[in-house]
Task: structure prediction
Amino acid sequence: MTGDEPLYKSLIRDTTAYFVYILLVATLGPFQFGYHLAELNAPQDVLTCKKISPQQSALPSSLPQCIPMNTVHFSVVTSIFTLGGLLGALSAGPSCNRYGRLQTMRMTTVSFVLGSALETFAPNIGLMCFGRLVSGLGCGAAIVVVPIYIAEVAPPKEKGLFGAFTQISICLGILVTQLLGYFMSKGNLWRIILAIAGAIGLLHFAALFFVSESPKWLAENRSPQHARQILRKIRDYKADVDAEVKAWNIDATANDISEEESLLSGAPGSHAAPDPKAATSSIGIWEALARPAYRPAIIAVIAVMSTQQLTGINSIVMYSVSVLSTLLPTKAALLVVFVSALNVIMTVLGAPLSDKIGRKASILLSIAGMGTCSVLLALGLLFGVQILAAAATLLFVASFALGLGPVPFMLANELVGPEAVGATQSCGLAANWIATFLVSQFFPIVDKALGGHGKVYFVFAGFAVALGSFIAYWVPETKGKSGIEEVWGRREARERME
Result:
C-alpha cells in the first residue's frame, strides 16, 4: 500500500468476508463487557424498589418485581462485576498463551450464559451479586484475549483501525442496554434486559465453531505450516502472505506445501498437532514482572489502562441517569441514550485517527478533552446550567472515544514481543478492572461526601492532569514502528532476546 492510498481502497484489497465474520464474532466478547457494564444504569430505580410501577413481565410471577437496595447495596452489586473482571483478566493471559486465543474465547461464553441466567432469576441481592461476578469473569477475560486476537488476524496496515473494533463493540453493548433500559425500566421487564445477554452468549458460543485460531499463535505453539494455511484463508488464498509470515520471526516457510494442500482450510476451529520445533516459550505474569526488560512496557500499559477509567468514563456509563436526574429529571434517561449513541459514532469516526496521528498523540488529545469537559460538567451541575452540563457530557464522551477508548487495548501487542503479550495485557487489564472497581464502588460515595452537584468531576479533572503528564513522559509512540526494536531502541530489544 502506498503512503497516499485512500483508506477505502486498502480496505477493499485487504479485507475478506471471512475476516469480517471472525472480527464480528470475536468482538461479541467486548460487546458483552459494555452490555453488562451499563445494564443496571437505566433500570436502577425500578430494580431497587425506589420506583414501583405496574407489574409487567414475561417471566415467572414468583420472582419479585424488585430487589430492595440502598445506595451502598447498589454500589456493591454494580462494582462486584469488576471483581469478576479482575479475576478473568488475570487468568486470561496464561490461558490464551497455553490453550490458544480461540479456546479462551469459547470459555468466556460459559460465563456469559451462566452469569446472565443467575442475574435474570435472582430473587435477592446475594444471587444478583454472584451472577454479576460470574458475568464479570467472562468479560474480564474477553477484553484481554479479543484485542490480542484481532491484532494477530487483522491486515498489518489497518491494525489501528480494526483494533478500535474492541472499543466500538463495547460502545455498542452500552448503547443497546441503554436503549433497552429506556423502554423496559418498568415492572419486571428489567429482568428481560439481563436475559438478553445470556441469549447473545449462546449465539456467540455457536458462532465460534466457525472461527479459526490465530495463525500467529499456531505458528508459535503448534505448526507454522498450518498457521500459514489459516492466514491465507483469512487474507485470501491468492494473497501473498510471505512478508506477514516473515514478520512473525518464526521458521514458517511453506515452500514444500503443494497448491492442493494450501487450498485445504481444515475445520475452522481445529488445530494442527503440536510441533515442538515451532513452539516458543511464553512469559508468565510473574516472570514478566521480574524481568527488568519488560517493566517499562508493563508500566506503560498499566498507566494507560488505569487512566482510561480514572478519568471518569464509567461514572457516565454506570451512574449518569442518577447524576443528571437532579438537573434534568425528565430528560436524563433520554440524554444517556444520546450519549451512548454518540460514543459509538465518535469511536467509529475516530477509529483511523491513531493510524494517522499516532497512538500516543490520540491518547493525550483524548485526556486533554476529558479533563476540560470534567471541569465544565462540574460547573454545569454545580450552578444548575442545563445546557452546559448536557454539552459537557456529550463532549466528555466524544473525547474519550477519540483515543482513550480504543487505543489502550492495542498497546500491549506493540510494546512487547509475542512471548509476553498475554502477560502484559493481563497486567494492564487487571489495573483497568481495579480502577473500574474504585470508580463504580466509590463514585456515589465520594459524590455524596462532597455534597453532590458534580463536584466529584473536579477530582476526575485532577486525575486527567496527573496521569496525562505521566503518559506524556513515559509511554513511547508505536505508530509506524515495525517492532519493539524501533519502539524501545535496539539495545533494549536485544536484552529481551537474551
